[in-house]
């Protein structure tokens, strides 16, 4: 009697289990980490969309030889990146300082230089500032790969009451699993300690133990073994920048005329930087009817 009664129940449960299995989303496919030399990280969406590493067919990069006025910075970051690509120890790097002086351009150029030396050895992965809290998920995807990865966050900074910096601190150095040996983290920021000065001053004035509170917030920058500072360009460096860009594009203009127009452009922009130099050259090339290569 009991066997007869339980048989329909078992059949019903089996049908329910099969229906649930059909409704469940399929397991996420492992990304092909050899599909490109650069990717953009898209974390899982709140609506249930899977995390993705989207390949980048062509990285918007500037040749490292075109980056002027940052020779020491180029040497430090390029050597660090190339050592890592060869499988040798290297440091996480923080590039901080003046706007428009080529911080993010240098990261991409150093990656390109490392891959020119050892093709395919190093993949560049861009993570957005707002996705920093998902960095542990990204590292879990990369951890078992034989390839080496440079995870890059541009314009990294933290605002008041922002707790993401604690997640980044743990990932860079202090977590149980730690940073995988095949991953290096590079970031750029206009702020030396990644947070606004008024945040640090507020901690000093309101915390029970001001010293400890400030140390907790600024210690994030200590997780970067390599600090590289960028400073505003003087006029001679600005001229070197525009000369290098003009020569690369083959612009037929005398140095005297180039300098005259560059000074006028920098005055209207209120400063001198690599970004201002490039914007000036784009304007000059357009007025001269010179198209960019590959455009």
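Q: What amino acid sequence fits the structure above?
A:
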């Amino acid at each position: 009697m009991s066997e007869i009664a339980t048989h329909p129940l078992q059949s019903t449960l089996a049908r329910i289990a099969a229906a649930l299995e059909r409704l469940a989303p399929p397991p996420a496919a492992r990304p092909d980490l050899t599909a490109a030399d650069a990717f953009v990280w898209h974390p899982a969406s709140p609506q249930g969309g899977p995390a993705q590493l989207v390949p980048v067919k062509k990285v918007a990069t500037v040749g490292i030889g075109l980056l002027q006025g940052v020779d020491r910075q180029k040497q430090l970051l390029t050597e660090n990146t190339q050592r890592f690509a060869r499988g040798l120890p290297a440091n996480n790097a923080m590039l901080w300082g003046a706007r428009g002086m080529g911080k993010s351009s240098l990261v991409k150029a150093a990656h390109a230089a490392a891959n020119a030396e050892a093709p395919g050895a190093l993949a560049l992965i861009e993570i957005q500032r707002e996705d920093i809290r998902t960095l542990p998920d990204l590292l879990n995807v990369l951890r078992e790969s034989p390839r080496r990865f440079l995870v890059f966050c541009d314009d990294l900074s933290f605002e008041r009451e922002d707790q993401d910096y604690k997640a980044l601190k743990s990932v860079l150095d202090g977590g149980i699993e730690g940073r995988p040996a095949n991953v290096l983290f590079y970031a750029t920021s206009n702020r030396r300690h990644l947070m606004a000065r008024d945040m640090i001053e507020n901690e000093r004035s309101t915390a029970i133990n001001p010293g400890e509170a400030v140390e907790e917030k600024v210690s994030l920058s200590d997780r970067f073994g390599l600090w590289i500072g960028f400073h505003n360009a003087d006029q001679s460096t600005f001229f070197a920048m525009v000369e290098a860009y003009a020569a690369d594009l083959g612009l037929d203009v005398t140095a005297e005329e180039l300098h005259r127009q560059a000074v006028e452009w920098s005055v209207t922009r209120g400063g001198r930087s690599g970004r201002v130099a490039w914007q000036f050259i784009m304007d000059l090339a357009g007025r001269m009817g010179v198209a960019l290569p590959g455009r």
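Q: And what stands out in the fold?
A: The two ends are 81 Å apart (CA to CA).
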